[in-house]
Amino acid sequence: MTGRRLLVVLGNQLFAPDRLESCRDAVVFMAEDVGLCTYVKHHQQKIVLFLAAMRSYADELRAAGFEVRYLPLDAGAGAYEDRLAAVVAELDCRQLLHFEVEDKPVEARLVEFCAQRSLQRVELRSPMFLGTRQDFREFADDRQRLLMGDYYRRQRQRTGILIDADGKPDGGKWSFDAANRRKLPKGLQPPEVAPAPRTRHVDAVIGIVEQHFADHPGRASDFWWPTTREQARQWLQDFLDERLAQFGPYEDAISQRSQTVFHSVLSPSLNIGLLTPGEVLDAVLERYSAGNLPIASVEGFVRQVLGWREYIRGFYWLQMPGYQHSNFLEAKRPLPDFFWTAETDMNCLHQSIETTRRNAYAHHIQRLMIIGNFALLTSLAPAEVEEWYLLVYADAFEWVELPNTHGMALFADGGLLASKPYSASGAYINRMSDYCSGCRFNPGEKLGEDACPFNYLYWYFLISKEKLLRSNPRMGLAYRNLFNKPRSEIEAIMLQSEQFLANLDPGVVRS
Ligand code: FAD
Ligand code: SF4
User: Over the stretch 288-332, which tens digit does the pLDDT of each residue have?
Assistant: First the structure.
């Protein structure tokens, strides 16, 4: 047979070599692409993660006997497609294989590439998820609302995870969500997550990033992420040993004393294929069956990986293309400068953005209830907020960033994903964090110079979006509380909010 089969592996498809067994005869194509590093100004650590992990993966594949064509970063080499086309021509390739591509625009490029050259395209099932896109479509078919809880239950039933012999959920409940909301007590210090040891590839790539991407946010030299499968598995073990037991109760806790609290910090490894959700859940369930782990922690974690992560992926594929174009709340304000500098007197925002700058990470509640909540209440333009989330976090890819930001945090889809906006005042942040004691504002004050801005902005949001939100049945109580306020208070809220918003300056990207 003339011609070779070519397996294109993207930087977020670094699956264990045994997943590639059916393509042993194929040449593996991997290329570091300047365009993908720069189409948004990705955090420097995210670029280090990508390139160093890709280089280690090429080593891993070669050690497993695969033939790899690896093209390093080269600014003058042209577009990804041109470099791929050169290898296709050289190998007289007729068949191109690839794993399911999760980001729709990237998939479209690969599809077009093959169509233009009449290359046979073979798509391999991705081990990055337990469910299939088709299964999610079937779940969605007969439903008006796509509730995560319903999909999660279906996933539990389908996989048998945390299901007893009678088909009932372990612990008697499908969700222990109500047990996941404790504030971090003073005497409890979560363990530090130890940075992964630096490989020779990490050292080399830090130099490249400092040279070529110096104007991107963050600092490459602060890099701390796993870039090999072995390192990612070590982080998984550390999570099981040191943090899983406390994951449940403190899942929503926010603290200045720990930027990772009891979270797993595994999302980048899961999203580039160094870990699969299957192996992560197997490891968690093995520990659970050995005893001594609370069901609220185990179920809480399973819900994130088997529920939320898979639901978000299915939802993205159902809504794309076009999902990002809605702007239900008519939000238009540009991103303020402090999203890049972290320089703001609002301590909760300062802390959450500063950890994002330093670590290319913030946990879910910082992303949703601090930064996202602020963006929602101040009507920041969805496209600008989404680009920010996409570039600052090491785990960010469109398939997962977009539904979380556009749907969950900003309610820009009008409620396709969340049944109501995740809006909150300073009272919530004060209840769940220790930020307010170090803040120049007072969460107990509703109006005036020292009042927490989240307090008046919360009501201003309800007032200014009334025609869009009032008919939402889940907003009934909030609007009843609003309408009980005296006219004078509403006027004062409007005045102070408008002054605050007038002082938000538009941002420019800064390193
Ligand atoms: P843990 O709290 O330890 O949770 C375990 C795992 O569950 C995570 O590693 C992740 O894989 C999965 N998970 C939990 N919640 C979600 C969720 N809502 N969506 C998808 N997976 C979830 N997650 C990303 O992976 N990439 C993103 O770009 C991203 N952008 C987000 C943007 C916004 C506005 C919000 C509110 C959330 C976003 N998330 C994103 C979801 C979530 O915040 C991160 O997955 C989580 O913070 C990663 O940290 P962890 O690994 O310590 O998570
Ligand atoms: Fe944030 Fe308000 Fe608390 Fe300050 S007082 S940390 S602005 S919630």
Answer: 999 889 999 999 999 999 999 999 999 999 999 999 999 999 999
pLDDT level of residue 102 (50, 70, 90 thresholds): very high
**Residue 448 φ/ψ, nearest 5 degrees:** 105, 175
Ligand 1 atom with the smallest distance to the CA of 371 is 34
**C-beta separation of 312 from 413 below 8 A:** no
pTM: 0.97
Q: Which atom of ligand 1 is nearest to the CA of 277?
A: 11
444 CA from centroid of ligand 1 (Å): 31
Over 80: is that where the pLDDT of 426 sits?
A: yes
Distance between CA atoms of residues 500 and 495, nearest Å: 9
CB-count burial class (<10 Å; 0-12, 13-18, 19+) for 146: middle
Fold of 338-502: DNA Cyclobutane Dipyrimidine Photolyase, subunit A; domain 3 (1.10.579)
The closest ligand to the CA of 349 turns out to be 2
For ligand 1, what atom is nearest to the CA of residue 270? 11
Ligand nearest to the CA of 346: 2
CATH number of 133-191+243-321: 1.25.40.80
